[in-house]
UniProtKB/TrEMBL annotation, chain A:
Superkingdom, natural source: Bacteria
Keyword Aminoacyl-tRNA synthetase: no
Gene3D superfamilies, per the entry: Hexapeptide repeat proteins (2.160.10.10), Spore Coat Polysaccharide Biosynthesis Protein SpsA, Chain A (3.90.550.10)
Domain Nucleotidyl transferase: 5-253
Protein family membership: Belongs to the bacterial/plant glucose-1-phosphate adenylyltransferase family.
Official protein name in the record: Glucose-1-phosphate adenylyltransferase subunit GlgD
InterPro entries from the UniProt entry: ADP-Glc_PPase (IPR011831), GlgDAde_trans (IPR011832), GlmU/GlgC-like_hexapep (IPR056818), NTP_transferase_dom (IPR005835), Nucleotide-diphossugar_trans (IPR029044), Trimer_LpxA-like_sf (IPR011004)
Keywords on record: Glycogen biosynthesis, Nucleotidyltransferase, Transferase
CDD domains according to UniProt: ADP_Glucose_PP, LbH_G1P_AT_C
Automatic annotation (TrEMBL), chain B:
Pathway: Glycan biosynthesis; glycogen biosynthesis
Organism per entry: Tepiditoga spiralis
Residues annotated as domain Glucose-1-phosphate adenylyltransferase/Bifunctional protein GlmU-like C-terminal hexapeptide: 286-365
Top-level taxon in the UniProt lineage: Bacteria
UniProt cross-references to PROSITE patterns, sorted A to Z: ADP_GLC_PYROPHOSPH_2 (PS00809)
SUPFAM superfamilies per the UniProt record, alphabetical: Nucleotide-diphospho-sugar transferases, Trimeric LpxA-like enzymes
Reactions mediated catalytically: alpha-D-glucose 1-phosphate + ATP + H(+) = ADP-alpha-D-glucose + diphosphate
Protein's name according to its UniProt entry: Glucose-1-phosphate adenylyltransferase
């Protein structure tokens, strides 16, 4: 069975503030060396998808830089491979942006038309999880579905108003509430669609020219005509762009060995861009506890409950607690950093104190020197 | 100006004991995520030499797997790239490479095809950083026929090396291969630059000499010297180590530790490239204590680590104490074990309550030439059962399984080797 993967790489509307000022949410760094998109991309590759289109538009530079030729995900192929799909001007399209998910795919219909794949899996670049999509395909085929939506049981862990709630009867999605304040279903929709390519093309051809630009609402309008099923994912799943607190908490989740084991294991590896940093070095003055330390970092200070990304230098006498330090940042001697997200290439000068009050998270913008 | 680099990677490295029983020395893991050959290869690409042949012979399997098509070193290119040169049977009935010179001689056709102006002969056994452009420039400036990189070594060490005696202008006047009474302290690093036409001639002459051992140190260099050719020593002052013994292997691994390391792997301007594994960053728990060490990606530490190199994917459980040791990829060390001065091969499992490196030093009953220090060596894919006590200067072979052990103690100087 051949499946074409499509990844929606994030819109302008997200809640990550300074972190997405210069990058799309799919390119947000996570867990010391990864970017959010690595998870969906690796999940696709690990599930046997070898042709993936990434739909980008908002601040794509760092995402493109990260993806390159797709080599790190084994997608630098003659047959299949990675396709970056950016908005463009053409005779038919006079606006240079995508008006929604359906419009984005519609504008790149050539990829679908030429593909010899029979099925399409549409995922999002902002989701952190490790899944074997093959189980989803099987479920789709065995139950003769037109469209399968990836869902998850919500036992209160997810805020109802942030997620769509599918209403399911006899295994079929019969109704759907978007961003409702109240609980109307036990399940939330995870933003992943699986369907026959021909059906997707039909839906887009008949709806997008009539001003329907959102894929979900096109599907919902046709709920009665189509057999839409749900497939439940049991494991750890988070959407990184929900809020800054969510971003922070997801990063911290990796310090829980159970979650780490679920996200990272040998059978389904998460691939990312390799940077050739030297191994992390923990020097004589250092004291590291309950932390994640990536390659290239040099630790001289005290680190507690923190994520230290690639190429970070932490000098002697500095205390770092409950913080996320992103790539190539430098923290000079004698600083105190508590509950802070330091974006890439930031420098904290000697003796500075950055301590959050009222449980707020301080974000230091990319490249700044404090 | 065309330069071809030829890395001689056939070394058996007998003085590394069980570590090189199933592995060529250039493929021996080093520094947490590297293999020894990564240094010579990275030096080549950092010096913009993009035509590299690697001559293999002994146990090439892991080496060849590591090198692949040269992708991690950017040597998967159209013009030039990485070539693995394995021994082959030819019509003239020469099969295995006899000496280092023979290894080059048998690849003359390959080198001729590229037809370089200069050939750089390197060894895959050494850990160092060197800009080869410097020695090549030096070679050209002096109109040298052969230039040999050399380094001052302590007098006590001199008999381990090829020793050069030079005039004040560094022209080599005399050469001694591993001398008992060295006349100087300028040691050859096994790095040669030749004009290809000149070397080609010498190799053919040497191959026709039935008395020759076909070795650069033993035959070619003395011969060039006899002919009074222009042979210069290039005095290298940077970092260079031969990691040929267990002591030097452990020491050299420790030289990357500390805030001001002798070998700085974190240098952004001279990166060492390698085949990377896909692993998440290292996790250090709140029970861990780590001091002056490297802990590589994919590892999890719950115990204490001091002055040691922990490779990738290593699990160190609670109450484990590790000191002055090298723990290679995917080793598991179960709780309450204590290890000091130990080298552990990949994928080995150390049971609970195991002690390694205790008691007094005793001379090795196995092979005093190889095992002659406080260091105990556990081979690859070996399982040490719970409560095992191992002394100093001990060795346990590769692939030992739990039920193959008859006792739970191993005194200093003893060892368990499988019969070959």
């Amino acid at each position: 069975m051949k499946v074409l993967g499509l990844i929606l790489s994030g819109s302008k509307h997200n809640n990550l503030e300074k972190l997405t000022k210069k990058r799309t949410s799919a390119a947000v760094p996570i867990f010391g060396k990864y970017r959010a998109i690595d998870f969906t991309l690796s999940n696709m590759v690990n599930s046997g998808i070898n042709k993936v289109g990434v739909l980008t538009q908002y601040n794509p530079r760092s995402l493109m830089d990260h993806l390159g030729s797709g080599k790190e995900w084994n997608l630098d192929k003659k047959r299949g491979g990675l396709f970056i799909l950016q908005p463009f001007l053409s005779v038919e399209e006079h606006i240079m942006h995508y008006r929604g998910t359906a419009d984005a795919i519609h504008q790149n219909m050539t990829l679908l038309r030429r593909a010899d794949e029979d099925f399409v899996l549409i995922g999002s670049g902002d989701h952190i999880y490790n899944i074997d999509y093959r189980k989803l395909y099987k479920h789709h085929i065995r139950n003769g579905a037109d469209i399968t939506l990836l869902t998850k049981n919500n036992d209160g862990e997810y805020d109802f108003k942030d997620y769509g709630q599918p209403i399911i009867k006899d295994n079929k999605v019969i109704d759907f509430k978007e961003k409702s304040e109240n609980k109307v279903s036990d399940k939330i929709f995870l933003g992943v669609y699986f369907m026959n390519k021909a059906l997707l093309m039909d839906l887009l051809y008949s709806s997008v020219p009539n001003g329907e630009y959102d894929l979900l609402s096109i599907i919902l309008q046709n709920l009665k005509k189509l057999r839409v099923l749900s497939y439940d994912f049991q494991g750890y799943w988070k959407n990184i762009k929900k809020s800054l607190t969510e971003y922070y908490n997801i990063n911290m989740d990796i310090l829980n060995p159970k979650i780490k084991k679920e996200l990272f294991f040998n059978q389904r590896k998460i691939y990312t861009k390799i940077k050739d940093y030297a191994p992390p070095k923990i020097n004589i003055n250092a004291n590291v506890s309950n932390s994640f330390i990536a390659d290239g970092s040099i630790i001289n200070g005290i680190i507690k409950n923190s994520i230290i990304s690639r190429g970070v230098t932490i000098k002697a006498g500095t205390i770092i607690e409950n913080s996320i330090i992103l790539q190539d940042s430098i923290i000079e001697e004698g600083c105190i950093i508590k509950k802070v997200i330091m974006d890439k290439n930031t420098t904290i000068r000697e003796g500075r104190v950055l301590e959050s009050h009222n449980n707020e998270i301080i974000v230091v913008e990319k490249g700044s020197v404090l | 100006m065309k330069v071809l680099a030829l890395i001689l990677a056939g070394g058996q490295g007998t003085r590394l004991g069980v570590i090189t029983n199933n592995l060529a020395k250039p493929a021996v893991p080093f520094g947490g995520k590297y293999r020894i050959i990564d240094f010579a290869l990275s030096n080549c690409v950092n010096s913009n030499i993009n035509m590299v042949g690697v001559v293999t012979q002994y146990m090439p399997h892991q080496l060849v797997e590591h090198l692949g098509i040269g992708k991690p070193w950017d040597l998967d290119i159209k013009d030039g790239g990485l070539y693995i040169l394995s021994p082959f049977l030819s019509r003239s009935d020469k099969s295995w490479f006899k000496g280092t010179a023979d290894a080059v001689y048998q690849n003359i056709e390959f080198i001729d095809k590229y037809n370089p102006d200069f050939i750089l002969i390197l060894s895959g056994d050494h850990v160092y950083k060197m800009d080869y452009n410097d020695i090549i420039d030096y070679h050209i400036e002096r109109a040298s026929d052969c230039t040999i990189a050399c380094m001052e070594v302590p007098k006590s060490e001199a008999s381990r090396f090829g020793i050069m005696v030079t005039d004040p202008f560094y022209k080599i006047t005399e050469f001694q291969e591993k001398p008992k009474n060295p006349k100087g302290t300028l040691a050859s690093l096994g790095i040669y630059v030749f004009n290809w036409n000149f070397l080609r001639e010498k190799l053919i002459e040497d191959a026709q000499d039935p008395n020759s051992e076909n070795d650069f140190g033993k035959n070619i260099i003395p011969k060039i010297l006899n002919e009074n050719k222009n042979m210069y020593a290039y005095n290298y002052e940077g970092y260079w180590r031969d990691v040929g013994t267990l002591t030097s292997y452990l020491e050299c691994n420790q030289e990357i530790l500390g805030p001001l390391p002798a070998l700085d792997l974190h240098d952004k301007y001279w990166k060492i490239y390698t085949q990377s594994l896909e692993l998440p960053p290292a996790y250090i728990s709140n029970k861990a204590k780590i001091n002056k060490s490297i802990v590589c990606e994919g590892s999890e530490v719950y115990g204490e680590v001091e002055n040691s190199v922990i490779f990738q994917g290593v699990l160190i459980e609670e109450n484990v104490k590790i000191k002055n040791s090298v723990i290679m990829n995917n080793v598991k060390i179960c709780k309450n074990s204590t290890l000091e001065n130990v080298i552990i091969g990949e994928k080995s499992i150390i049971g609970e309550n195991v002690k390694i490196g205790i008691g007094e030093y005793k001379e090795s009953k196995i092979n005093p030439k190889v095992y002659n220090s406080n260091i105990s060596v556990i081979g690859f894919e070996t399982e040490i059962p719970n409560n095992f006590v191992i002394g100093k200067n001990c060795v346990i072979d590769n692939f030992f399984k739990k039920d193959e052990f008859k006792t739970l103690t191993l005194d200093s100087g003893e060892g368990l080797l499988k019969e070959v």
